[in-house]
């Protein structure tokens, strides 16, 4: 039977993943997102989530969500262009535009969908895309969908990018980068990228999934962090499932760009509008982000504590100025072994392996949030020092 052969093949491929230390498994949490997780009846301190400001389970957001459910019900019922765009969504888009400093913003259901929508809507055959080698998977997939010529430059290498731009005959050019690299925690050289975009008349798409809410004055993101203006050639993408504590994403840009995305971005057009409950919760979240300096200060104190605490040990921390603090291990099996040893001690830190990161750079991705306490970070430091 053909079917059993197909399944046997999959079974062999799955066995290979296990042999390579690449088999992934989900753990089911019996608790809301937060620094304390409950898994299989065990209490753990979690350093896994991207809930950098601790807003995912914030009482003010829960109140807003409950009130929204009573006013708006649960579902939007259709795509935004048909009948799924409600006052709650419209109000959030206007708040996001004002907050990010761009003329207009457009919501997407997820950051992954935003990226898949933006890139093919803006460039196609005969155009050129220039992408950082360590960009997030969603940007890599977006490039594939776009059918433009694409070239990848070495991570953060402005000189390499300059050479590629200078050599490109393309009519329309688009530079594509994470602002904060999701598995390394480092920042893209945004001022240099912006200068090159200006010089070569290119668009600059900035994916600020890990900077929005965290970096810059009032958490306004990586552009503000670097003092880069909300210029016409910049297309800013922020996600709402990380620091904002909900789910979804938005693109903020020039009025014409947003109108074009609304007309042409397929992942905007051909999907049901996100829940109005989420739109209302996110509006509440934006206020907390804007007034969240105390949370951000605490977060930076925890990052400094972790870095100081591991200095001089065998654990190599990447030079990250963000909430993502990766400990490079190298070998897949070794990364898993250390992660499991931490888990046994009640500390949950994800082991990140290829293909999420390049081969030979398996790592523990420690992610800190404003909801962690100094004592919890101290426990992680003690355990890691012990395991070293
Ligand atoms: C998480 C992430 C995304 C995807 O956002 P979702 O809202 O989770 O789909 C896109 N880009 C980067 C850099 C990310 O880290």
TrEMBL record:
Alphabetized GO MF terms: 8-amino-7-oxononanoate synthase activity; pyridoxal phosphate binding
Pathway in which this enzyme or protein is active: Cofactor biosynthesis; biotin biosynthesis
EC number: 2.3.1.47
Reaction(s) the record says it catalyses: 6-carboxyhexanoyl-[ACP] + L-alanine + H(+) = (8S)-8-amino-7-oxononanoate + holo-[ACP] + CO2
Binding of pyridoxal 5'-phosphate, residues: 111-112, 182, 210, 239
Signal peptide range: none
Binding site residues for substrate: 24, 136, 356
Modified residues (N6-(pyridoxal phosphate)lysine): 242
Cofactor: pyridoxal 5'-phosphate
Subunit relationships: Homodimer.
Record function comment: Catalyzes the decarboxylative condensation of pimeloyl-[acyl-carrier protein] and L-alanine to produce 8-amino-7-oxononanoate (AON), [acyl-carrier protein], and carbon dioxide.
Similarity comment: Belongs to the class-II pyridoxal-phosphate-dependent aminotransferase family. BioF subfamily.
Protein's name in the database: 8-amino-7-oxononanoate synthase
Organism: Candidatus Propionivibrio dominans
Lineage: Bacteria, Pseudomonadati, Pseudomonadota, Betaproteobacteria, Rhodocyclales
């Amino acid at each position: 039977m053909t079917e059993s052969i197909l399944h046997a093949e999959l079974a062999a491929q799955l066995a290979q993943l296990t042999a390579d230390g690449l088999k992934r498994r989900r753990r089911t949490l019996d608790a809301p997102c937060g620094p304390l997780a409950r898994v299989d009846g065990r209490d753990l301190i979690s350093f896994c989530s991207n809930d950098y400001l601790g807003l995912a389970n914030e009482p003010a957001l829960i109140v807003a969500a409950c009130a929204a459910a009573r006013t708006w019900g649960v579902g939007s019922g259709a795509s935004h262009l048909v009948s799924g765009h409600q006052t709650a969504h419209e109000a959030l888009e206007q708040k996001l535009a004002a907050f990010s400093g761009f003329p207009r913003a457009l919501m997407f259901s997820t950051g992954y969908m935003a990226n898949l929508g933006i890139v093919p809507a803006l460039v196609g055959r005969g155009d050129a895309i220039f992408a950082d080698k360590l960009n997030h998977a969603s940007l890599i997939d977006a490039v594939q969908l776009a059918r433009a010529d694409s070239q990848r430059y070495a991570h953060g290498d402005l000189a390499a990018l300059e050479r590629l731009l200078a050599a490109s005959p393309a009519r329309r050019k688009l530079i594509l980068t994470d602002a904060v690299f999701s598995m390394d925690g480092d920042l893209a050289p945004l001022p240099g990228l912006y200068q090159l975009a200006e010089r070569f008349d290119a668009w600059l798409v900035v994916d600020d999934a890990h900077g929005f809410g965290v970096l810059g004055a009032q958490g306004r993101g990586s552009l503000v962090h670097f003092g880069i203006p909300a210029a016409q050639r910049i297309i800013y993408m922020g996600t709402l499932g990380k620091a904002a504590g909900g789910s979804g994403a938005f693109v903020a840009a020039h009025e014409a760009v947003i109108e074009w995305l609304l007309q042409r971005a397929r992942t905007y057009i051909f999907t049901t509008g996100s829940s109005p409950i989420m739109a209302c919760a996110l509006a509440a979240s934006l206020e907390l982000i804007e007034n969240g300096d105390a949370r951000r200060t605490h977060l930076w104190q925890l990052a400094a504590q972790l870095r100081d605490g591991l200095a001089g040990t065998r654990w190599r921390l990447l030079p990250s100025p963000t909430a993502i603090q990766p400990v490079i291990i190298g070998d897949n099996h070794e990364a898993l072994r250390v992660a499991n040893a931490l888990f046994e001690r009640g500390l949950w830190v994800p082991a990140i392996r290829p293909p999420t990161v390049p081969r030979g750079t398996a790592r523990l991705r420690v992610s800190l949030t404003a909801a962690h306490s100094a004592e919890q970070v101290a426990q992680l430091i003690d355990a890691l020092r012990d395991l070293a």
